Amino acid sequence: MTNLEELVQEINRFEAIISEWDESQRCVAVGLKRAIEALHKAALTSLIKSLKEESMPALRHAVADEVVYAVLLYHELVKPPKPPLSQRIQTALEEVRPALKSHNGDVELVAIKPPDTVEVKLIGTCSSCPTSTLTLSQGVEQAIKNHCPEITKVVAVNNSSTVNKANSSLISPFSAKITCTWMKVATLDEVPEFSVVVVQLAGTSLILHRQGATVKCYRNGCAHLGSPLEKGKVENGIITCPSHGFQYKLETGECLTAPDISLQSYPVKIKGDKVFVKLQK
Fold it and tell me: At the N or C end, where does the chain have fewer CB atoms within 10 A?
């Protein structure tokens, strides 16, 4: 039986061929692909509904097959598995390390205490700095909770300092990132609903897309090979990379061509008719 890796290689081979076609030819291929995928998704949805009603064990057995699971995942009919909790915590800590190291500090995981508590250790200058409480709450704790919603309490085992009037003016390495990075990039009228607009912010190329009063912001680079997206065709809330045909949902940044990648997003807030974006460090 052909395995999943061989099937993916075959798909990639045809995608590489199609990427060399001109735009009109690619549009035909993409349209056919969408129509076939819509048919398959409808059939799979009906099949899953019937199996749920008749035999859940049979459904679980089918989903255990890697090819079946991959297809269902592609059609968003199953949820992708979460990485282990320990792995997600380490990802969160790696996210904040650059800011800590800029102040000659660091952080390490001490213990995971189910169901909802994580112990960490602030090291270097962060362990004795009067702003260590701010560092914990503004940086480390928030990063862990973003990656691990099940964690509600983050404790620094060597953190005995408190924030009071005497030290409240001192600055945590995360304070500037939280309070000083929002920048106006456009007005609502300048952000289109049926296409994207490209803006430059602090040397970073971004694309903006509006859905009613909601604005989404992404790095102007395809997650495949980094090709610019601003000239990509937008249809039904989906943008197609003009270079190799990779498609993304502008509502979420999810890639429809390769479900394990997505566009890099940036926080957006609206004040009046002004659009502000915060660059992620």
Answer: N
